[in-house]
Amino acid sequence: MKIYIASDHWGITLKAALTQWLEEQGQETEDLTPPPEPDGRIDFPLAAQAVGKHVAEDKESVGLLACRSGVGVAIAANRFKGVRAANAHSVEEIALAKHDDHINVLCLSGEQMTIDGAKAIITAWLETKVDNIERRLRRLQQLDEYGS
After folding, report:
1. Closest Cα partner for 65 from 131, 124, 12?
2. Which of 21, 67, 68, 145 sits most deeply, having the most CB atoms within 10 A of its CB?
3. pTM of the predicted structure, to 2 decimals
């Protein structure tokens, strides 16, 4: 499983630390962060679009995004059919999101999230199994039909 990663300028430090840590854990990562503008800024929609596009095309992959709040990248990534992006602040929150809603793109706050907190959330996200009972699969199908 490949983890596609990107961030805006607010999430760049968190992203760099997490990418290194994930690779040390044996995870395959690919950084899709767009190049910064001359003033150093990276627009969050461009980062989220890069990850969202790859996760939508590669169903075996997941994505990790960071921006100032984590909300902007979640909104942008969710525009891709088959992408289920969510912002998470706790291990419990992401475990429920993965189990119930099959989250395949995790969005974090580059301003509010500590590296250790992010590592705990990522670990829970990667280790939590999805629940494939009929009602969950039906709801995922309903989500994918919104844009059809």
Report:
1. 12
2. 67
3. 0.94
